[in-house]
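Researcher: Next entry in the queue.
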Amino acid sequence: MDPLRERDPRQVGRFALLGRLGSTGTGAVFAGRSPSGRQVAVTVVHDHLAADPAFRDRFAREVAAARRVGGAGTAEVVDADAEAPLPWLATRLVDGPSLARRVAGEGPLPAAEVARLVAGVAEALGSLHAAGLVHGSLTPAAVVLADDGPCLVDLGIARSPEGTRTSTGEPPATFEYLSPEQIRSEPVTPATDVFALGGLLTFAATGRPPFGTGRPATLIDRIERADPDLSRLPDDRLRRLAAACLAKDPAARPAPSDVLTDVLAEVTPATPARRVAPATPGDGPVALTTPVTPVTPVTPVTPVTPVAPADDLPGPRPHRRAVLAAGVLATGAGAAAVGGWLAGWWSTAPPRRAAGPASRTLPGHVGHVYGVA
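Model: Structure for this entry, 373 residues:
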């Protein structure tokens, strides 16, 4: 998190701003805190977009749609104001480093972790698309690796149509993850996000975008005409999945639900008689199964010899209903003997002692850490 700049606001709505997290095509993103101490990420719309009535209308509609996104893997909307001089949106501040920072610091992810990443992002995209939203700018910096799985922290709400270009007319730093239709300034669709998902998969597994890096003109030609470089992907399954997501034709790309099904098929046991073995980082694909070891038959328990006499037995007195039940169950010639033995023991057994107070250990508090690229 960077310090606030001189012209940055210090308060947005009910949130005090603590620092600057970055910027998107929609606006500047700040770390904020509510009066109760809740931490949020606040996006404040750029001045030139706030002056556009059509943008304001779209912002209000898409914020309302984002409030309905209830699936896992997205930073839910906490508050927003589309009527403010500079419209803003506050979402949950997610703990963890971004995918970009994780790969920059530790290198490519193991194949098993890549599969879990793809499954989590595909699930989040499914929730986003079901609410009528398209992310449109899915990059390694927009995915935070939280403890409970990957989370999309930039929902692409009311993204500017010019958001794929900087003020100088040059492509932004994340240009490598744009789809062919975005380069041609065509409308974005859910298939656009799937193309970016293929780019995330490639980056997470190799540390490089699927079409490499370089001059904007060169990248445009590669994205529109060349095949992606998938040679460094660690196994055939990931290569096939990345190639399908990175198809030039949007209609040829799989839906997020198909991507999720394909990944989950690798971690689901084939039959009830098999179980999934724990994935070890660096061991390759997630599809690791081992047969269940047969259970050794239990040795029969030797009957317990009755204990007598009862006068010296320590411990609590049995409940009166247990005594009556034993008397009822006794049959034949031994019934009277069992009943008499229990009655005698009842009269001589020591009284029960009250149990001492139980103790509890309260859980500790976990702090917040937020990383951006």
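Model: Residues 111-130 form the longest helix (20 residues).
Researcher: Noted, moving on.
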